[in-house]
Amino acid sequence: RCVTLECAEVLYGATLLSVERGWVVGDRGVIHFTKDGGKTWAPQEAPVAEPLFSVSFSDADHGWCVGRTGVILKTTDGGKVWKRVESGVRSTLFQVRAKDAQSVVVAGSQGVCLFTEDGGRTWSKLKAVPEVDWYALVVNEWGRVYLGGNDGAFEIRLAE
Question: In sequence order, what E strands does the chain have?
Answer without folding.
Answer: 11-16, 22-26, 30-34, 42-44, 52-57, 63-67, 72-75, 83-85, 93-98, 104-108, 113-116, 124-125, 134-139, 144-149, 152-157
